[in-house]
Design a protein that fits this description.
single chain; about 160 residues; mainly alpha; Rna Polymerase Sigma Factor, Chain: A; Arc Repressor Mutant, subunit A; 7 helices; elongated
Length: about 160
């Protein structure tokens, strides 16, 4: 393999390894599985880099990841466990508040995990990764209208659940 292809691989790996991991994780809800599939994705990309048209690498890498996940057979509903991004300052919050907050987070996680796989992945890609509908459509290889519809259904489902919380 030439140094040009090495550089090409490194560029795309650096840019896409985290988004590919999150893409898979949002679909399967299993961190270890997502790491394995992401690694396999880039191994396959490395092996086929000579045949991939320049400019089409991102779509190719996402297609590999999607196909590997489908091959693995992950179609079950999952409960996603999101890592806390901010540490709570327990001195400023009462135990009652901390308990209510924990219960609320669990209800939200359950509500998100109860969305259909298609709705959940679009919702998380938009709300967690901050991707625009157009970017989501490109990564999932669907139309922007399909992304909008999935997001609409996800928000309606979450709105119904919110009233119960």
């Amino acid at each position: 393999m030439s140094s040009k292809q090495d550089k090409r691989f490194k560029t795309h790996y650096t840019r896409l390894v985290q988004p590919i991991f999150r893409f898979i994780y949002y679909k399967c809800g299993d961190r270890v599985l997502a790491e394995d599939i992401a690694q396999d994705t880039f191994i396959r990309f490395w092996n086929k880099i000579e045949t991939v048209k320049e400019g089409g690498e991102s779509a190719y890498i996402y297609r590999i990841a999607k196909n590997l996940l489908i091959n693995h057979g992950q179609k079950q509903k999952v409960s996603l466990k999101f890592q806390q991004t901010l540490r709570q300052n327990q001195e400023n919050h009462s135990p009652q508040f901390l308990l209510e907050e924990k219960e609320f987070k669990q209800k939200v996680e359950r509500a998100i995990s109860n969305l259909s796989e298609k709705q959940r992945e679009v919702f998380l890609m938009n709300r967690i990764d901050g991707l625009k509908y157009r970017e989501i459509a490109e990564r999932l290889d669907i139309s922007q209208k399909a992304v909008e519809k999935r997001m609409q259904l996800a928000l309606l489902a979450l709105k119904k659940i919110h009233k119960k919380i």
